[in-house]
């Protein structure tokens, strides 16, 4: 009998271990497929550990107070991504294990089914999994900080007894780090610390380290909240409706996050409520309710901030606390001797497993396609740079199949505006002068097989000179309502090649081998049909910039912007190799991108 019991226990321990290994491997695959995105680019720039802290100090003074999270992110982003993939997968495993510890709060035998259910709930119900658990910057801001918070909170949950002065000092310092993590989740942490201290006081188990930890958490929270950068950042959220409107609006949004059918937080919240009612252990029912209340409070705390209350990354900590509340209810529910409870739990796990397999399969497909595009884009940039093009046009990552398990879902990719912060960081990292992006379909038509030497030029005089040195290149040109003052240099450049333009006129032209094949100008709209080497073209100029078109073989290649547009056609390769617009209203004046209509 004893021998059989030992074998059974060993088998259960092995199952528990295998579940942890399975969680790690599943997370590692997703991490490995996730590509650097948005803030990763900026935080990866540093010249060493001193520079990391210097940059973080600047950010603390000018943008946000989340220094603990951002220092972690900056450090990881100086390392190969493989290091982060492994560490982040281990951190995800540790998050699930911490949730499990908060749920059980005892040293009884392990419950593999409980750990599995927790992992399934985390995968299914935390908001924007890709941004909070896979994206490098986002993971450090949410996954890693939540782990810090739960680890700090665990001794309070376990009512640990210790009068060691070093332990007390350690909890004080740890409290500073835990409080200095994430605004609304750290606030929920302080609420839970106060709850457990009241519980300890009631049970006459109050310890000195509890006070030290609370003081440290309050100090860390205060350092984060009073950061000068928060005031600067809040200016990005302009309030034109008045404070009363904003508070009521955010209050309604908070309820929507918790109960609206458009969000998934309502499902774990309702499960938590049901289990609270079914829980027969009065003490654990109160603890479960405390975690649930803290999670709800973490949502409503956003009402006090300038950011909108939506089901996004900021709700991550709240979701984890509610999942802990659910776990406590499930654990106590499973301890009931009735047979139907076991069946109900098994059915619940089976249902969650089916949904998890479905979403995981979609995530693999989505992330794999994104990574494929990303690697192709990186290879293209390297080729263009080697060919001398320091101003490449790159394809935007196609997000048609993006799911919430992809970091790009809701984040900004490299844009068509070269002066946007994400473009500037990308240029700096890759040693480029500028970078612009265009939809994949347009990039395939124009820039994929473009001439690197032509595409890197931004000055029109140099551009026309380079064009004249390529006998096989034909330039189709249009412009609408040209202003002499705004386009002085461009008008001079065109005049050298026989295109003489008057002020405030529209014009269309075809230029090849330094010869003007066609040129018309007028105050009215213009259009012209023709052919080049057997390929038809259509050029029009209209007072409305987005109506001025250049088509070759019925395919449009212009940028739908006012100004002077040139489409270059290689008559030997029989393909368009560049499309560029000089637009005085644009921040860069010279732009290469094609917006899909």
Topology:
Blueprint: H1 2-33, H2 39-43, H3 49-62, H4 67-76, H5 81-104, H6 112-125, H7 129-134, H8 136-141, H9 143-158, H10 165-179, H11 183-202, H12 208-225, H13 228-234, H14 243-259, H15 266-278, H16 282-300, H17 316-334, H18 339-386, E1 393-395, H19 421-430, E2 436-438, H20 440-445, H21 452-455, H22 460-468, E3 473-482, H23 488-495, E4 505-512, E5 515-522, E6 526-532, E7 535-541, E8 550-552, E9 555-556, E10 564-570, E11 575-582, E12 590-591
Parallel strand pairs: 1-2
Antiparallel strand pairs: 3-4, 3-10, 4-5, 6-7, 7-8, 8-9, 10-11, 11-12
Helix pairs in contact: 1-5, 1-6, 3-4, 3-13, 5-6, 5-9, 5-17, 6-17, 6-18, 9-10, 9-11, 10-12, 11-12, 11-16, 15-16, 15-17, 16-17
Could you describe the 3D structure shown?
The chain is of the alpha+beta class and 597 residues long. The chain has 2 domains: 12-364, no CATH class; 442-591, no CATH class. It is 57% helix and 11% strand. The protein contains 23 helices and 12 strands. The protein has helices spanning 2-33, 39-43, 49-62, 67-76, 81-104, 112-125, 129-134, 136-141, 143-158, 165-179, 183-202, 208-225, 228-234, 243-259, 266-278, 282-300, 316-334, 339-386, 421-430, 440-445, 452-455, 460-468, 488-495, and strands spanning 393-395, 436-438, 473-482, 505-512, 515-522, 526-532, 535-541, 550-552, 555-556, 564-570, 575-582, 590-591. The strands form 3 sheets. Strands 5-4-3-10-11-12 form a 6-stranded antiparallel β-sheet, covered by helices on one side. Strand 11 and strand 12 form a beta hairpin. Helix 15 runs parallel beside helix 17 (316-334) and helix 16 (282-300) packs antiparallel against helix 17 (316-334). It is elongated.
């Amino acid at each position: 009998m004893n021998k059989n019991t030992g074998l059974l226990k060993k088998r259960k321990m092995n199952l528990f271990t295998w579940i942890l290994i399975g969680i790690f491997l599943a997370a590692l695959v997703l991490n490995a497929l996730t590509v650097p995105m948005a803030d990763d680019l900026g935080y990866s720039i540093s010249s060493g550990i001193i520079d990391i802290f210097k940059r973080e100090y600047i950010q603390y003074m000018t943008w946000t107070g989340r220094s603990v999270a951002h220092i972690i992110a900056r450090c990881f982003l100086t390392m190969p991504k493989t290091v982060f993939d492994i560490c982040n997968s281990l951190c995800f495993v540790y998050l699930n294990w911490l949730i499990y510890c908060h749920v059980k709060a005892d040293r009884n035998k392990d419950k593999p089914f409980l750990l599995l259910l927790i992992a399934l709930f985390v995968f299914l119900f935390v908001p924007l999994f890709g941004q909070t658990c896979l994206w490098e910057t986002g993971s450090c801001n949410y996954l890693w900080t939540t782990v810090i918070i739960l680890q700090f909170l665990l001794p309070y949950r376990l009512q640990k007894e210790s009068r060691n002065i070093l332990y007390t000092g350690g909890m004080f310092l740890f409290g500073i780090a835990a409080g200095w993590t994430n605004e609304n989740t750290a606030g929920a942490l302080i609420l839970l610390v106060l709850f457990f201290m009241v519980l300890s006081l009631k049970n006459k188990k109050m310890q000195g380290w509890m006070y030290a930890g609370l003081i440290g958490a309050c100090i860390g929270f205060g350092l984060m909240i009073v950061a000068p950068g928060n005031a600067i950042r809040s200016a990005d959220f302009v309030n034109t409706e008045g404070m009363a409107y904003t508070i009521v609006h955010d209050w309604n949004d908070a309820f929507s996050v918790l109960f609206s059918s458009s969000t998934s937080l309502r499902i774990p919240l309702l499960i938590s409520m049901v289990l609270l009612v079914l829980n027969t252990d009065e003490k654990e029912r109160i603890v479960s309710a405390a975690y649930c209340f803290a999670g709800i409070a973490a949502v409503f705390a956003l009402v006090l901030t300038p950011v909108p209350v939506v089901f996004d990354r900021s709700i991550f900590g709240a979701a984890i606390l509610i999942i802990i509340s659910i776990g406590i209810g499930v654990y106590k529910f499973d301890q009931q001797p009735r047979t139907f409870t076991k069946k109900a739990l098994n059915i619940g796990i089976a249902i969650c497993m089916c949904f998890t397999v479905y979403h995981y399969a979609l995530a693999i497909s989505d992330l794999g396609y994104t990574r494929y595009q990303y690697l192709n884009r990186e290879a293209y940039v390297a080729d263009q740079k080697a060919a001398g093009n320091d101003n490449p046009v790159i394809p935007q990552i196609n997000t048609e199949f993006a799911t919430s398990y992809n970091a790009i879902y809701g984040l900004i990719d490299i844009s068509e505006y070269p002066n946007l912060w994400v473009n500037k960081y990308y240029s700096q990292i890759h040693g480029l002068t500028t970078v612009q992006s265009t939809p994949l379909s347009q990039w395939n038509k124009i820039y994929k097989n473009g001439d690197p030497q032509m595409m890197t030029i931004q000055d029109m005089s140099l551009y026309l000179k380079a064009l004249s040195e390529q006998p096989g290149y034909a330039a189709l040109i249009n412009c609408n309502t040209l202003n002499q003052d705004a386009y002085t240099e461009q008008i001079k450049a065109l005049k050298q090649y026989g295109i003489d333009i008057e002020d405030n006129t529209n014009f269309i032209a075809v230029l090849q081998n330094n010869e003007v094949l066609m040129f018309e100008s007028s105050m009215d709209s213009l259009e012209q049909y023709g052919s080049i080497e057997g390929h038809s073209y259509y050029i029009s100029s209209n007072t409305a910039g987005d109506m001025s078109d250049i088509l070759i073989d019925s395919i449009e290649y212009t940028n739908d912007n006012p100004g002077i547009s040139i489409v270059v056609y290689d008559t030997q390769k029989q393909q368009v190799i560049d499309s560029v617009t000089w637009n005085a209203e644009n921040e860069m004046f010279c732009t290469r991108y094609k917006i899909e209509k």
